[in-house]
Amino acid sequence: MDPASLLFVGLELSRLSGGETGAATLGDSLEAIEAGGLALSPFEGPVLQPVIGWRSRRLALSLAPGLAGSSSTARSTDGREARVSTLSWKGEARAWVLAGPALVGLDLGLSGATASSQGEAVASAPLLLELAPTAGVRGALSEQLDLVPRLRLPVRVSEGATTWGLGGALMIEWHP
Fold first, then answer.
1. Does residue 126 sit in helix, strand or coil?
2. By the 8 A CB rule, do 151 and 176 touch?
3. Which of 37, 72, 109, 164 would be 92's cystine partner, CB 3.0–4.6 Å?
4. Which residues contact 17 (CB under 8 A, 6 or more apart)?
């Protein structure tokens, strides 16, 4: 098997919520309160995440960095307004076992978020570690394109607190 044929790149559509990056904690940050008590609105919505990896017949290993930003007007309790920009980032390493079109595996991610107003940092979220068992199927769209929907059960740990939930992702994968 040609080593180049084992490489793949993809583009994944997933929903990035505050709980997945720690951005939800920005509004409670002591830094934000000291900066004027602004009510922050971190980005929550769909993101496209690039994926690059290696795949054999039975195993797939990949990296998936993600970045989402937003800007909105924040309001304080005394009526002041300020433009606040949030930036959420997430990096994942993935290991999947392949059995025909089916896949099962584990995603390991690290993420964080920051907020700034007029060039000054006003809040930062603590780092969030995520361990997500995943299962999905690979469907051929063409000879070199696959569609990979999958379900995830992420377990997130941040500052000693553990949460979990159910999620999903949809990836289009290109391989030579």
1. coil
2. no
3. 109
4. 24, 44
Tell me the pairing of strands 81-99 and 45-55: unpaired
- Residue count (the chain): 176
pTM over 0.85: no
Smallest CA-to-CA distance from 117 within 37, 59, 23 is with 37
- Residue 146 contacts residue 172 (beta carbons within 8 Å): yes
Which letter does DSSP use for residue 144 in this model? S
The contacts of residue 87 (CB under 8 Å, 6+ apart) are 67, 68, 69, 113, 114, 115, 116
Mean of all residue pLDDT scores within the chain = 80
Token pair 């290993």 in the structure block, residue: 61
pLDDT at 27 over 60: no
Question: What per-residue confidence (pLDDT) applies to 95?
Answer: 98
3-state secondary structure of 37: coil
Which of 14-23, 40-49, 64-73, 104-113 has the highest mean predicted lDDT (pLDDT)? 104-113
CA-nearest of 33, 26, 119, 111 to 67 is: 111
Where do the H-state alpha helices sit in the chain?
A: 18-21, 30-34
